[in-house]
Amino acid sequence: MSTAKTTIVVACALAGALALAGCAQTPAEPAKEQAGTQNREIMFQVSLLQSLTEGDFEGSVTVGELKKHGDTGIGTFDGLDGELVMVDGEVWQAAGDGKVNNMADDKTIPFGNVTFLDADETLDVSGIASFKDLTAALDKRVEALGPNNFYAVRIDGTFAKMNVRSEYKQEKPYPTIVDALAADQTFFDLENVEGSMVGVYCPPYMTSLNSAGWHFHFVTDDRKQGGHVLDCQVDKATASIDLTKEFDLALPGSEKFESTDFTVDRSADVKKAETNE
Ligand SMILES: [Zn+2]
């Protein structure tokens, strides 16, 4: 009896000593990695929207890597090659020619936002007449839940109208985003389509890294049409809203990025690129 007891005490002391030694030798891992489960409440961002406006269209993160950071999101591809929509962990390209393509893991992206969508609440958005009214309805929920957080939203349903745009791939030397869109933007006015709108909300303090407020992309259920949302009319749809409190930024480290002067205010270019106004 007493021998067994002693053995247990020694084993515990040894385990404690090993744990201490381990801590001393290697830097502490973040809690989320120690736990062995992924932290799903992080808004992951590749580069800055402000860098994209300057023509830094070179992809820096692969689609495969993007999938490790989320299952839902938006962005664009190397060379500003169309609009990225991530739904259910699949990455789709709504291309400039109007086609939608499933993108392989080795493709790269110069800008995007993704997270894992775990809805904190749902909102019936049926019958909303415009994109402006839709974002106003979502803003009400954001005001209630806290406007200084990030949000990912997915709106599934039928849309009487969906006005989207995309753009053709750019060649080097890359133009600014405003010039690229002026030359190579394409518009698609869809009617009575079933699909998913994927949106990201950035809080007001994000104006120098992204744009404040909502940014939506769309893809049809049959994955044949889609793009960056300019306007829409909702027939019957439900919004799944995911409040996200953490932010992870992956800077590209490209020559173009390193040499860009980010003290310049690019808000007018960002607005033009986002709204086409
Ligand atoms: Zn977009």
Describe the structure.
The chain is built from eight helices and 14 strands. It starts with a helix and ends with a helix. It is of the alpha+beta class and 277 residues long. Mean pLDDT is 90; it is low at 1-33. It folds into two domains: 2-34; 42-275, Hypothetical protein, similar to alpha- acetolactate decarboxylase, domain 2 (60s Ribosomal Protein L30, Chain: A). The longest helix is centred in the first third of the chain and has 24 residues, at 2-25. It has a seven-stranded mixed beta sheet, with no helix packed on it. Strands 9, 10, 11, 12 and 13 form a five-stranded antiparallel beta sheet that branches. A two-stranded antiparallel ribbon has the order 2-7. Strand 3 and strand 4 (83-87) form a beta hairpin. Helices cover 27% and strands 38% of the residues. Bound molecules: zinc ion. The site of zinc ion has 5 residues, from strand 12.
Structurally, the number of domains stands at: 2
Question: Overall mean pLDDT score?
Answer: 90
| Rg result | 22 Å
Strand content: 35-45%
Quaternary assembly: single chain
What overall geometry do the principal axes of the alpha carbons give?
Answer: globular
Largest sheet: 7 strands, mixed
